[in-house]
Every structure is written in structure tokens, then in C-alpha cells.
Design brief:
Elements: E1 2-15, H1 50-64, H2 84-89, H3 102-107, E2 115-117, E3 121-122, H4 124-131, E4 137-145, E5 152-160, E6 165-176, H5 182-200, E7 215-222
Helix pairs in contact: 1-5
The structure holds zinc ion.
């Protein structure tokens, strides 16, 4: 196995409907809200973790390829050379170096994980807005209705407002597995670009079925500077 190429995709993610990527409840501050978004702890700027983006791409593609049923709802972890999911996104079986059993050897035929998704940081334009004191985050109240009393039970969730942009970058390795890198080259289109297209029609973060988290990709280009249409 030898790495023979590197692809790069960069561009911007535009928030179309309020985006909520939760920080988790271990980070509640006194007097803070109970549904905060994830932020850089030093600058307080919201960002999109690479793991959130990659996890969503992977899950949409597993649904698309009909892998969800086979794995009883868990991520595919087969590690087989012909599995586009494990090859591109990685599998826990890739790293079992100590296990020399025949079954294990068959399981790490995929080689190293091809796709690296970087954290997507707030665009320069929106950083400036934030510095100028303009709101790029809102608190939205979502109601649940008590079935007996019919009283609304509002709870606040924090969201990045529509129009805010994040700079994203993906890096993709092309490895020669006795095929001159053909499998990885094809997978870049049918797996990576396909997952981004699926994401445009889905949502990122929490509350997607209630209208949150619609996004778009703009100014996307590859490592040669060629524009890529998603
Ligand atoms: Zn797999």
C-alpha cells in the first residue's frame, strides 16, 4: 500500500435555518442555559466540530447504501477492503494491530482512514460581526405541550442564526491498493461528494425534524482551485 495522491476540498458552510450543535450538559455554567451550542472555550466563537460533520456524512451514506439494517443501527465496522464506508471513514478494526488471527487480517484490509474532516471555524466576516457586537447566536424557545393541561412548556435552545458562514476543509488520501488508486479515486465522487450532497438535503446538529440545521455549501473548490458543484 502506498499513498499516491491527496485531495482537498475547501469552502464554506452557510447556515440556512438555525444550527444547534450541542456542547453537552457537562459544560453548564452557573446562570447559563441548559441547551448551549459548542464554542471555542477561549474566544466563545461557535464552530462545527469535524467529528459532527464526518459522523453525519457517514450516517447518511450508510442509510443511502442500505447498511443500517445489516448493522442493527450501529456504524459499519466490518473493515473489509470492498466496504466503501470503512475504507473512507475508517473502522475500529483498522487499528487492531496486535491481533494476528486470520479473521483479523481479513478485517484490516482497508488500510488507513482516507477522509480527514477538519473543524469548521467561523468565517472572518462573521468574526468581525461578533466583534462589532452583532448577534450571530440566538436563544429560541421550543414548546412542548402538556397533554393534560394543554399548557406550553417552553425550553430555550441556543442556535447559530441563518446567514452565518463557517470555513470547512476536507483532506482525502488516495492509496494504491494494487489498482493504481482507482478505488479511492472513484470513492471520492461516489462516497465523499455524495455524502455532502445528501447532507445538503438533510440537516446538521439537533432538532432537524423541527426545522433546524439546514445548511448549504458554497465556494467549494478542490486542491487545484477548480470549483466543485455540490
Ligand atoms: Zn464496513
Amino acid at each position: 500500500m502506498q499513498q499516491i495522491g491527496l485531495k482537498k476540498l475547501s469552502g464554506q458552510i452557510v447556515v440556512k435555518t438555525g444550527l444547534h450543535i450541542g456542547a453537552g450538559n457537562d459544560k453548564i455554567e452557573i446562570g447559563g442555559m441548559d441547551n448551549p451550542i459548542i464554542r471555542n472555550p477561549l474566544t466563545r466563537e461557535p464552530y462545527i466540530p469535524g467529528s459532527s460533520l464526518k459522523g453525519k456524512m457517514r450516517s447518511l451514506l450508510e442509510w443511502h447504501l442500505g447498511k443500517v439494517q445489516d448493522n442493527k443501527g450501529k456504524p459499519c465496522n466490518c473493515g473489509k477492503a470492498d466496504c466503501p464506508i470503512c475504507r473512507v471513514f475508517g473502522s475500529a478494526n483498522n487499528s487492531k494491530d496486535s491481533d494476528e488471527s486470520k479473521e483479523s487480517k481479513e478485517k484490516h484490509q482497508t488500510g488507513p482512514t482516507r477522509l480527514i474532516v477538519r473543524d469548521a471555524f467561523l468565517s472572518a466576516e462573521d468574526k468581525k460581526k461578533m466583534d462589532d457586537g452583532k448577534a450571530i447566536v440566538e436563544e429560541k424557545y421550543e414548546n412542548s405541550i402538556n397533554r393534560i393541561t394543554a399548557w406550553a412548556n417552553p425550553r430555550p435552545i441556543e442556535r447559530v442564526v441563518p446567514g452565518v458562514k463557517f470555513d470547512f476543509e476536507l483532506v482525502y488520501r488516495i492509496i494504491n491498493t494494487n489498482d493504481d488508486g482507482k478505488t479511492d479515486t472513484t470513492n471520492f465522487d461516489t462516497v465523499v461528494l455524495k455524502a455532502l450532497k445528501l447532507l445538503k438535503n438533510d440537516y446538521l446538529g439537533g432538532g432537524g425534524t423541527r426545522g433546524n440545521g439546514r445548511i448549504d455549501f458554497i465556494n467549494v473548490k478542490d486542491e487545484t482551485g477548480t470549483a466543485i458543484e455540490l
